[in-house]
Design brief:
Length: about 475
């Protein structure tokens, strides 16, 4: 595959994705890179859970089989749920969708499920413990994605539930136990065969694909059948060779919105072709890390990291409105790849650098002056200005270049206090350095990088005159 593509789905140990204080280890950097490239290429990755967690999940799946097996063949009207967008953050208990030949049990902390006819019912076992371990895993994976995108740690904490939930709070995230194609459940007449793929007939539901509205989803099934559309538009079976303690992780629409389209959501569908011969159907556990209903999805963290934000992501979107809105899948995917950050190789060679396309020449062209200035300014902003802002508890919110040209001459402008507290260069608009003209970049660098003029101005003049041609 071209570029830094992976021949198969990336497989990463969850313990290697847990961040620690200090500099990142080679294992952490390599695991983050594998995860992110797998999400970029396949919209999914395989997460290896600790052995104890895997045993708990398998036990919960066994309990789920028995739970659904004792359910009646016909779903009553009070448990049929087809469109749940309005109550997306309050669903709980048993529900069924005969059209999709699917049953589900939603476990959501903070909500007491009400059973039909007030009957006593025992849910699948271990849901509380599985919710806790998969919720922690999802947050660790989200932090790893933040690191790869060069965002600050815990960038999306403001839109996540409290840990633990406060009194009377209801969890936005949900653990769903699914059962597809239970033979004794009346729903098979609503299915049909798809076209032939890889010399085998594959059966899918009438609705050919689905996109979760979560930030991240973690899924573990008792048998293979989950297909995800990859970067090239091909349907890939992603859970065909899962080990007993492995699960699938894939991004959702909320993460796509919060990252300004830099992380594509997974388009997925489930194969139900061979379930008739099985007594219980196909059972699965799906944890969905959801944003809080009383929050908004915005791209402020992406802007602070220097990303360009397209018009469709400019305005904050209330989460509750986002969840109730329809999202046509044919308009969703720009198919951006993750930015190609490469990590330095360790001295012992324990980490291989990411593969990149290079031209077949032995010498690299020197960077043009504007590019060199931009990169230097971005580095200084990250290392100097952000440190000052962090120590003073200031959250950087940059202006646009056009509106800030007048701010620098007034004392009561929106950015005046911030510029004064962090020592922003006088006369320089308060915008991200890559938006500044080159002359303003010089003033910016001279303020925060002592000795920059003496050591770098000469290099730029040599580049401009074409006298510098250092080999790579």
């Amino acid at each position: 595959m071209a570029g830094n593509g992976l021949p198969t789905l990336g497989r990463v140990k969850l313990t290697d994705l847990i961040a620690t204080e200090g500099l990142p280890s080679d294992t952490y950097k390599l695991s983050v890179s594998t995860l992110s490239h797998s999400l970029a290429q396949y919209s999914a990755a395989i997460i290896q859970l600790p052995a104890s967690d895997g045993a708990l999940i398998r036990s919960c799946l066994e309990s789920a089989r028995l739970y659904f097996h004792q359910k009646p063949s016909y779903a009553s009207a009070d448990v049929i749920r087809i469109n749940e967008s309005r109550e997306w953050c309050r669903t709980s208990g048993y529900c069924a969708d005969p059209q999709m030949w699917q049953e589900a049990y939603d476990f959501r902390p903070g909500v007491t499920p009400s059973e039909p006819n007030n009957e006593m019912e025992f849910p699948p076992a271990g849901l509380t413990d599985v919710f806790s371990l998969l919720g922690k895993a999802a947050r660790d994976i989200l932090d790893a994605i933040n690191f790869y995108l060069n965002l600050r740690s815990y960038a999306f904490t403001e839109i996540l539930d409290n840990i633990p939930l406060r009194n009377r709070e209801i969890s936005s995230s949900v653990l769903s136990v699914y059962c597809h194609a239970r033979p004794s459940f009346q729903g098979a007449q609503n299915h049909n065969l798809t076209t032939q793929e890889d010399d085998q007939l594959v059966m899918f539901a009438d609705h050919q694909h689905h996109v979760d509205k979560s930030l991240l989803s973690l899924l573990k099934s008792d048998k293979a059948g989950l297909h995800v559309k990859d970067f090239h538009g091909r349907w890939v079976l992603v859970d065909g060779d899962l080990g007993p303690q492995e699960a699938i992780v894939y991004p959702g629409l909320a993460l796509y919105q919060a990252t300004a389209g830099n992380v594509n959501p997974a388009l997925h569908r489930t194969n139900t072709s061979n379930e008739q011969c099985n007594l219980y159907g196909r059972c699965s556990l799906a944890f969905k890390l959801m944003p809080k209903s009383m929050s908004s999805l915005n791209c402020s963290e992406m802007r602070a990291a220097g990303y360009g934000v397209e018009a469709q992501f400019q305005l904050p979107v209330p989460v509750d409105d986002f969840m109730q809105r329809s999202h046509p899948t044919d308009q969703l995917f720009n198919r951006h790849n993750f930015p190609s950050f490469s990590f330095p190789t360790a001295q012992d060679g324990s980490m291989k650098p990411l593969m990149r396309r290079r031209k077949n020449n032995s010498r690299c062209k020197p960077l043009p002056p504007s590019k060199r200035l931009r990169l230097e300014a971005q580095r200084v902003l990250k290392e100097r200005v952000q440190d000052i802002a962090d120590k003073k508890g200031i959250k950087l919110r940059f202006c646009t270049l056009k509106e800030c040209e007048s701010h620098v001459h007034t004392l009561d402008s929106p950015c005046a206090n911030i510029r004064m507290e962090i020592g922003w260069p006088p006369g320089v608009p308060f915008v991200h350095p890559h938006d500044l003209p080159n002359k303003a970049k010089f003033g910016f660098l001279e303020t925060y990088e002592p000795g920059w003029t003496a050591t770098h101005a000469m290099e730029l003049s040599l580049i401009e005159s074409g006298q510098s041609s250092q080999p790579c």
